[in-house]
Design a protein that fits this description.
By secondary structure, the chain is mainly β. The chain contains no helices and eleven strands. The strands form two sheets. Strands 2, 4, 5, 6, 9, 10 and 11 form a seven-stranded mixed sheet that branches. Strands 1-3-8-7 form a four-stranded antiparallel sheet, with no helix packed on it. It is globular and about 40 Å long. The model has no long low-confidence stretch (mean pLDDT 96).
């Protein structure tokens, strides 16, 4: 079992930045691909970014590419999502996910409870 806990959300003005953190407990995450997803009110949960455990490849949704980066610190058992140039369209509940495979999708094995990000215009 992997328990995930997100933090770092909050209220920020458009154009600002936030860094989300995801702390994992229960197992070392060095053999898990880690991802971030988000869900806005009335919308389905959508993929944001992921980092694969083998090789460290990262990939992003088109909507955040060039603005968000994802990184991991296996020694601290944490994953981060650096979000820059935020827009009101980025407002959502952000979830951390972990999967032992080479990709992270909405069917990922483990999920956190989410952290709210609100971007004001």
């Amino acid at each position: 079992q992997v328990q995930l806990a997100e933090s770092g959300g909050g209220l920020v003005q458009a154009g600002g930045s936030l860094r989300l953190s995801c702390a994992a407990n229960g197992r070392a995450i060095n053999s898990y691909s880690m991802g971030w997803f988000r869900q806005a009110p009335g919308k389905e949960r959508e993929f944001v970014a992921a980092i694969v455990w083998m090789g460290g490849r990262t990939y992003f949704s088109d909507s955040v590419k060039g603005r968000f980066t994802i990184s991991r610190d296996n020694a601290l058992n944490k994953v981060y999502l650096q979000m820059n140039s935020l827009t009101p369209e980025d407002t959502a509940l952000y979830y951390c996910a972990a999967d032992p495979g080479l990709e992270v999708t909405t069917t990922a094995r483990y999920w956190g409870q989410g952290t709210q990000v609100t971007v004001s215009s």
